[in-house]
Automatic annotation (TrEMBL):
Record keyword Oxidoreductase present: yes
GO CC annotation: membrane
Name of the protein in question: Cytochrome P450
An MF annotation (GO) of this entry: iron ion binding
Highest taxon above the source species: Eukaryota
Organism taxonomic ancestry: Eukaryota, Fungi, Fungi incertae sedis, Mucoromycota, Mortierellomycotina
Amino acid sequence: MSMLASYPSASASLELIWAALPFGIGLASAALVTAKKAAGWSLNNLIPTASLRPGDSTHDTEFKEDQDAFLTRCETEYGSMFNVNLHGKHITVISGSEIQEVFMNDSFSPTDAFEEMTGIQTFFNSARKSNHNDDLHIIHRVISQIITPKLALFTVRIQEHLETTLDKRLGAYARRDNRIIVEEPWPIFKEMSAHAVAAVFMGPESAQSPEVIDTFMASIDDFAKMFESSTRSVSLLRKTLFRATHRILSPLQVHVQSLVQATTPIILERRRREMDAAERGVEWERPDDVMQSMLDNFDTYNFVDLEDVCGHLLILVLTSLHSTSDVATKMMYFLAAFPDCIGILYREHQEALDIVQQEREQMRQELIQRGLPIGEQLYPSRDRDVSAAALKKMVRLDSFIREMFRFRSEKLNMYHRARNDVALSNGVVIAKGRTVVINMRSAHQGPDQGPEVTKFRPWRFVGKSKAATKVAADFLPFGMGK
């Protein structure tokens, strides 16, 4: 990184000296930097720190007032990498091509960063008895090994419970001029998501349990409070007290015990049916939910007991339910802001279901002609389920969602903490213990997004191979890599 400096000349005889000084200092600095780099020293001091506005002691106020304007100023003045003082910490902002390096390098830990800022690891450990120091690897394995392979099945189940809960909740609101007035959509989506998540994670029996639903929603409120410390400056004393509260009081244990009480009779009944099937020499039809799969793989995941299983389930619930409710709420606000899109999306929805219904009817006729039975999955009553096949045909909906994600994300997000000194491809070394944050603006408002990147264009991605579920260097709402 180079800097230019100029000095006024006092006389012609001093001009050569003044001209040579910056050059000589530059050579000396380069030699010192080379020596430090060879010795493995940190080069964080080479990353420029953004200046403060007059009267500001941190960048928090300027960032909150206008994130785009703040980052535009910093990028213009300092380039793709610079330091800021946010949330009570000195943080390095990473932009451009170095973003992928952060995500793909195991030496950068998002878990460590959020533990430092929020105490999230301590918070989660108050719920579980095992796997305390695994960076949530067990949770990741459950998602990849159990949830992802069954997404097609779970999608239909989720839809059913979302619709049932939505009909029930909206019926409680007053109607004015044939319109339903909802003051705040978040509680509705939180309850809808709780029922859907309960059906997928713990089975249909749990989805009907008021105790389970209440536990899920109460735990989400605790989870949201924990994240308050990552979105504003919090004193070290408060953070320390926050972690101590988690260690001593274990607030999530109350929710874990509620889940244990609710699931124990369900599990006992399942075991009774399994034993009865074994005695009769028939195969037991295993429930298709995450809890059953976790119990079946009890030793593989190193669980201790049912409380431990419920603790891990609760962590899954917290991470999925909070994000699902938040995204659904944001989606409604974007639809309200662009009401002309609603009719277009509804027509696309109906047309996609019509096509799927025709395809399923054709499959049924082919089975009948071949003399084969029609399985439950092809029953006509399921023709208009919002299946994975139907969703793939809703290209405008997918584009709207991707564009919503592009605008929804915080401009600085996805914190990581360096576990070792890490050398980036541009030659800069991020020192061990340093926190970095991704400049989402540089990815989501870059040239790859097409024209008018600062405007919400709902059909921006129609006809392009850019699905709302696929991460890439220009689409990072879910992060990248592990």
